[in-house]
Amino acid sequence: MAELKLFRTWSTPFALRVVWALNLKGIQYDTIFEDLSNKSSLLLQYNPIYKKVPVLVHNGKPLVESLLILEYIDETWKQTPLLPEDPSERATARFWAKFGDDKVLLSVWNVFIKQGKDQEEAIVTAQENLGFVERQLTGKKFFNGETIGFVDLAFGWLANLLSVWEEICGVTLIDHEKFPMLSEWIQNFAGAPIIKESWPPRDKLITKYQALREVYTSKEAPK
Amino acid sequence: MADEVVLLDFWPSMFGMRVRIALAEKGIKYEYKDEDLRNKSPLLLEMNPIHKKIPVLIHNGKPVCESLIIVQYIDEVWKDRCPLLPIDPYQRAHSRFWADFVDKKVIEVLMKISTTKGEEKEAGKMEFFEIFKILEGELGDKPYFGGETFGFVDLSLIPYYSWFYAIETIGELNIEAECPKIVAWAKKCLQKETVAKTLPDQKKVYEYVEQMRKKFGNG
Mind telling me how many Å the CA of B191 is from chain A's nearest CA? Predict the structure, then answer.
């Protein structure tokens, strides 16, 4: 029988992508929770380059980088495909997942860690990026169409973590008026059974990120 | 029906070179359009409205953007010949990881070396060698990163070789002295016609970089 282990932390949204992918495909696996302030020797052995989670270990062989892990899972277990079959649609899916990580996540994170005028500027950039994403949902329930797929999992953090950050900052990035399709996608995605059952406890997330924001905002003089 | 393939590119771009090599490996005929990046064509802006960058592959009118995504697309569409990625899912993941490593690390450190001075520049140079030594470790004793044959990771990295003279001159470093295996690997790749015909001359790249630095006042 295949041996599958997932190294993760309780909160990282990147590991959640892997959890969702495995659960959607009905694949059994063991979970190892890491304390990133005291990384296990196994983690360092399996991911010597980045020393990060998530790491998926399949029959002793490590896979790292969440989006690459998702592609591996999709190629190894063919049920409930995450990526479309058509090469052009696959390229489009990969493009949006990359855009999500390279641009959207970074710009939203900048809103979270800044304040005053810097934050206002960060909000403009983040909403510009979210606008591109919003248009991808035109005529679709999920980015993948009728069912959850690769791009939905890539943007999963928008359906949960974003609202935690918004609450802490007192900023609304995705409001129903400006982003009606994204707002609806958030409801659909967050409420899907496989997704819902794996959200980390919200109160713990608030505590964690509240503390992080305090660290970032105390580094600067208020503007 | 004949395929219509157009590549929007810019001759010194390492990212564009990856696509050119992939197309050459697969023997695909295409129309090459060199963009003036200070005066981007309406076609480029239409085909890549989000990033407005090259390379963009336009296949039968549909655009594909981001060099590694384009290369994977080419591999999947023209799958009947010369595979660029391995067949085994674990080996594919491994190849994608290393191509992604190149993307995450190399450009950033090149920017650091070419735009900073003094201590920061020295730190950049150390980081550059660290990154390339990690790559040497991954290469090991294999002829190519792909093993016996030139593959996805080789294709992702080899375009940087055309920038080595520029990097060495501007960065004041000696890549062959510190990373002889990488330079030996690069020269081996250059024995392939597809690579040799694609990579521009190192001095030509250096002249272009110097021109840009003079214009925009770097270093």
Answer: 31
CA nearest to B25, candidates B90, B74, B92, B94 = B74
Q: Are A15 and A65 in contact (CB under 8 A)?
A: no
Which of B69, B92, B134 is opposite residue A94, by nearest beta carbon?
B69
With cut-offs at 50, 70 and 90, classify the pLDDT of residue B216.
Answer: confident
How do the residues of chain B divide into helix, strand and coil, expressed in percent and rounded to 5? 60, 10, 30
Other beta carbons within 10 angstroms of residue B87's beta carbon come to: 8
Average confidence score pLDDT of chain A: 95
* Helices B89-115 & A66-76 angle (0-180, nearest 10): 160
DSSP, collapsed to helix, strand or coil, labels residue B158 as helix
Q: Does B89 touch chain A (CB under 8 A)?
A: yes
Q: Is B208 on the interface with A (CB under 8 A)?
A: no
Task: State ipTM.
Answer: 0.95
CB contact under 8 A, A72 and B65: no
Closest-CA residue in chain B for A128? B50
% of chain A with per-residue pLDDT over 70:
97
The rounded distance, in Å, linking the Cα atoms of A17 and A69 is 9
- The amino acid occupying position A192 is A
Asked if A110 and A125 touch (Cβ cutoff 8 Å), the reply is yes
**Rounded-to-integer distance, Cα B19 and Cα B68, Å:** 8
CA dist., res. A134 & res. B63, Å (int) = 20
Q: Encode pLDDT of B138-155 as tens digits.
A: 999 999 999 999 999 999
Which of helix, strand or coil describes residue A63? Answer: strand
CB contact B73 to A (< 8 Å):
yes
Q: Among the residues of A171-220, which ranges form H helices?
A: 180-191, 193-196, 202-218
Cβ distance B100 to A68 less than 8 Å, yes or no, reads yes
Q: Which of A8, A103, A16, A18 lies closest to A52 in space, CA to CA?
A: A8
Across the interface, whether the CB atoms of B96 and A69 are under 8 A apart is answered no
By Cβ distance, the residue of A64, A72, A99 closest to B89 is A72
Respond yes or no on whether the N-terminal peptide bond of residue B55 is cis (omega within 30° of 0). yes
Q: How far is B33 from chain A (nearest CA, A)?
A: 21
Task: For B46-88, write each residue's pLDDT tens digit.
Answer: 999 999 999 999 999 999 999 999 999 999 999 999 999 999 9
> Is the model's pLDDT at A205 over the cut of 50?
yes
For range A138-153, the mean pLDDT:
97
Contacts of B171 (CB under 8 A, 6+ apart): B113, B114, B121, B124, B125, B128
